[in-house]
Amino acid sequence: MADPTVMVPLRHRLVQWVVSQAWLRAIYRLVPAALRNRVTGRLMAPPEPVYCRFENEDRWEQRRHAVPDAPVHFFGQADPAWAGHGVNVFAYLRGQFGLAECARLYSRALLGARYPAALVDVDINLPHGWNDRSLDAYISDAAPHRVHLVFINPDFLDAALDQIGKARLEGGYIIACWFWELENIPSTWLPALQQVDEVLVASRYVGEAFARVTDKPILCVPLPLSDVGDSGLQREDFGIASGDFVFLTSFDFNSYVHRKNPFAAIQAFQQAFPAERKGVQLLIKTSNGYRRPERLQLLLDATSGDPRIVVRDQVLDRADVQALQRCADVYVSLHHAEGFGLGLAECMAQGKPVIGTGWSGNMEFMDAKNSALVDYTLVPVMEGEYAHHEGQRWAAADVVDAARWMRRLADEPQLALAMGERARESVLQTLSPERAARALIARIEQIHQQRGLISTPSTVPPSRQEGSN
């Protein structure tokens, strides 16, 4: 039975019901955006149980370092050949979840190259946090370009297009950036392919899945990593003992706990380190557990009895996430499947050794030299473990192999240091913003040239397109 302290509040269920009604959504959109966001933010404020939150957060505000409001690293120069060209980015630009962060990463790469990019925020009230303001200086309602990058997965595409306004997209070229974690694309997603001209994917694994169901162009551009700033919080702020060797794993309950598979990480940790072994910790950082109270309770039950395993369920600012990753020694992801595996990539960029299942989208940037790849067996996806499970399979990580890697990295500091250095050098090259921007711009420019698309006069202030930091 779910713990009553993590049940979904009535006000959350009320907001979710209102958003599910088409006629109420139409009325809701008439409310000014500022008022809409303020009211929704208060109603949807997460009431995570105190025992699942970081214990010292009441002093974080005084201990944080200032980070840039709009962290964009400018590395390119505007090309005169781009005159009259550009791209609109429609995305959940203020969302605090995976697809939203991916949209911001691609956007930063385009802005950093000084390519004409107009950023338009989409908010259809998905059950997530919406407080990322890092790109607010670049967001407006202007969409002057004729090529559109749309970061909305197929299951919410119609609702998003209604909000964007299909007339704004008419006559242009739509590239949809979609993520999926399994080998076969759901049949319910196929109609969405008829509404777009091309699909952008972050890994060849996802690209191969879409290639099985469409002959439309598929552009693969691995996610570009960008340093969005570190809040400066230290181990003591997160309740981590200074001398402990800490394994970190993280996920969003909205992304399905069984896919992220923290239970395998728990089993591997306990196999690697018998109860009498002190000075090691497994920190499981989650978010949105209050929206999935029965799943959160399942995780808490799996960790009970071992004080070395700590669960913290809380939505953090991106700069605090980066600080937490810095405070860990090793990042672990014994996932069943990943479309990309951003947490792994972010920690590798910080020079952390990572342990990950050697299958699916993370193989875009992980190999046997730069990470600890865990053996696996492909198994069927069972009902209730993930959406559209029928006929699907994914990888079951070898817990014994994962435990072996945990022991080695904890007991062999030189191995951990060397692996972390190789990881950083590798991903900073493979997942660089410059590399991603070149690939995106080359394709967008090719579309402009082939189709003769010309932007309308932009209303975006020049300061939003240019500058340096």
UniProtKB/TrEMBL annotation:
Entry keyword set: Transferase
Protein name: Glycosyl transferase family 1
Domain of life the protein comes from: Bacteria
Lineage, broadest ranks: Bacteria, Pseudomonadati, Pseudomonadota, Gammaproteobacteria, Lysobacterales
Matches recorded under Gene3D superfamilies: Glycogen Phosphorylase B
A single MF term (Gene Ontology): transferase activity
CDD domains per the UniProt record, alphabetical: GT4_PimA-like
